[in-house]
Amino acid sequence: MASISLLNITKVFDRRTTAVSHLSLDVHEGEFMVLVGPSGCGKTTILRLIAGLESPTSGEIRIADKAVNAVPPRDRNVAMVFQDGVLYPHMSVYANLAFPLRMRGLGKPQVKGRVDAVVETLGIGDLVNRKPAALSGGQRQRVALGRAMVREPVAFLFDEPLSSLDVGLRLAMRDEIKALHQRLRTTTLYVTHDQSEAMALGDRLCVLRDGQIQQVGRPSEVYDRPANRFVAGSFGTPPMNFLTGRIRFENGTGLVDLAAGEVSLPTSLSSHLGDCEEKSILVGVRPHDLSLEPFPQHKGDVLSGRVNLLEPFGSRTDVHVVLPSGEKCIVSAPPHVGLKADEEVRVYVNPERLHLFRPDGVVIGS
């Protein structure tokens, strides 16, 4: 195991395309860190920089507290698992697993011992004599993971390894990777654009956008206390609602005026709004923090609207509501909500669960 540090890393391609910009990140020894963000945000570039497949334009990369910018990939002792589980098609599973060890010059007894141990750990004993063409997508990824494990690296680098699998298999493999990390405790960087996958796997998340870090924290921190609108809108299904509001104070109590109604703000939020009075802000609220029934302690915080669409999901129904301003919000309601399109509704707000953002998207308070 080893820590990994990126110190003010910038990567520019073709002298004009900046993939990563002045990025600093510490991955602790034995940690499972997930890099999450949309396509093109720099996730894979970061992995390739750590693996040595790309060189930074500026900045320093350290593995186990040693600078590795000038160290070739084969000597960094990190193992990368790619999206499509690349295997040598002409070799058996056993030969694919043994190949990196033979390239290092290990003797037959050592090779057999390591391969047999990985085969047992991953439960792929029935696959060792097959060629990759005879494997399913999940089996290929399991073998690709085994080929990384057999090297006994100081860190694993996963580049969206589950994105090509169907939903059921993806969930099963996700559980296997999580359980494997809990057993081995090898430092792991895992790239995904799937927020659910990130939340389920990561000890910590690093949220990226346009080659820059937006927030680093435990999944619960990123979800409950997003640093900006981008992060807030990146997590949660359905996503957070955003409404335009204006702050004012009445008898010392902070209020936010929305087109569809007025909401009283708790002291924890009001105390951060001294410079926002009579200014426009963005109000974020998750669908499950809205209700079509009054909250016990907040019966007066209500918005008016009209049902636009109903989406049943079995355990819940997402009610899409159009507000008088034309803004839309989603309310996660019980499965048998008993509404129909174009019906007028009252939407109740839990003000304790509001997130307030300045017009530039930066969170107000914390």
What features would you describe in this structure?
There is one protein chain. This protein is of the alpha+beta class and 366 residues long. The chain has 9 helices and 20 strands. The protein has helices at 43-51, 93-103, 108-122, 137-149, 167-184, 195-201, 219-224, 229-234, 267-270, and strands at 4-13, 17-27, 32-36, 58-63, 66-67, 78-81, 155-159, 187-192, 204-209, 212-217, 241-250, 253-258, 261-264, 280-285, 290-291, 302-312, 317-322, 328-333, 344-349, 355-357. Strands 6-7-8-3-9-10 form a 6-stranded mixed β-sheet, sandwiched between helices. A 5-stranded antiparallel β-sheet has the order 13-12-11-14-20. It has a 5-stranded antiparallel β-sheet with strand order 15-19-16-17-18, with no helix packed on it. A hairpin with a 4-residue loop joins β16 and β17.
Q: What keywords describe this structure?
A:
366 residues, alpha+beta, Rossmann fold, OB fold (Dihydrolipoamide Acetyltransferase, E2P), 2 domains, six-stranded mixed beta sheet, five-stranded antiparallel beta sheet, elongated
Topology:
Blueprint: E1 4-13, E2 17-27, E3 32-36, H1 43-51, E4 58-63, E5 66-67, E6 78-81, H2 93-103, H3 108-122, H4 137-149, E7 155-159, H5 167-184, E8 187-192, H6 195-201, E9 204-209, E10 212-217, H7 219-224, H8 229-234, E11 241-250, E12 253-258, E13 261-264, H9 267-270, E14 280-285, E15 290-291, E16 302-312, E17 317-322, E18 328-333, E19 344-349, E20 355-357
Parallel strand pairs: 3-8, 3-9, 6-7, 7-8
Antiparallel strand pairs: 1-2, 1-4, 4-5, 9-10, 11-12, 11-14, 12-13, 14-20, 15-19, 16-17, 16-19, 17-18
Helix pairs in contact: 2-3, 2-4, 3-4
